[in-house]
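can u do me a favor
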């Protein structure tokens, strides 16, 4: 399963790239508002220099023409831009039109399996079910991920299931087991995946024992 970083924070993206675990990036207007530091376009351009993987740029227009204008403009930023379009009637039409122009899209705000199926049919290359937001309203968000992954496998649909709205490391494991092709995670969750208390205490213990050995038997 590929790991994308769900952020517009350049330093976080650089860190994940340095760790060798970054397969792509997803952004949205909320993440851009949090990150600040330049226009959305300039941030996207910089992100695209850090990762060769897909970088999702989200439209805010709600009508087809507006989505197409924004989508085409994002696509000109770099070849690895994927235009993120919300699930709606206008969104499906924009996805189909952009597909005809060979501009890849990520259908976002997917909350049901049928929505994901339609988005794939319209031609979105990435389908983003929001796991955490479904869990928040007492629904099992991972079910949508699992059902979409199974349906895409059964029917040989090429779109990829991108598990989004990941709230913790357990979500990432569950998404991988459910067959998600990609999970997009906030930097905090990526860090939680790196660490384990026994790893951290083990490193400290080995260091302390090493230092003690230097004092008692000398040597390097
Ligand atoms: C990513 O593509 C989504 O926009 C993001 O995962 C949403 O996460 P949230 O539900 O934590 O806002």
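np, heres the sequence
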């Amino acid at each position: 399963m590929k790991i994308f970083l769900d952020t517009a924070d350049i330093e976080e993206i650089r860190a994940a790239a340095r760790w060798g675990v970054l397969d792509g990036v997803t952004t949205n207007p909320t993440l851009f508002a949090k990150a600040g530091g330049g226009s959305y376009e300039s941030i996207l351009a910089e992100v695209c220099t850090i990762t060769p993987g897909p970088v999702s740029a989200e439209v805010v227009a709600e009508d087809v023409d507006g989505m197409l204008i924004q989508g085409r403009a994002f696509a000109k930023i770099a070849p690895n831009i994927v235009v993120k379009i919300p699930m709606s009637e206008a969104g499906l039409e924009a996805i189909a039109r952009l597909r005809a122009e060979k501009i890849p899209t990520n259908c976002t705000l997917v909350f049901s399996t049928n929505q994901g199926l339609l988005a794939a049919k319209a031609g979105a290359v990435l389908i983003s079910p929001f796991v955490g937001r479904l869990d928040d309203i007492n629904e099992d968000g991972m079910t949508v991920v699992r059902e979409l992954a199974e349906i895409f496998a059964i029917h040989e649909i090429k779109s990829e299931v991108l598990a989004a709205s990941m709230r913790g490391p357990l979500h990432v494991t569950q998404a991988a087991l459910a067959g998600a092709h990609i999970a997009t995670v906030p930097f905090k969750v990526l860090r939680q995946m790196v660490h384990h208390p026994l790893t951290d205490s083990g490193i400290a213990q080995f260091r302390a024992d090493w230092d003690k050995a230097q004092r008692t038997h000398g040597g390097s």
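The chain has one domain: 2-219. hope that helps!!
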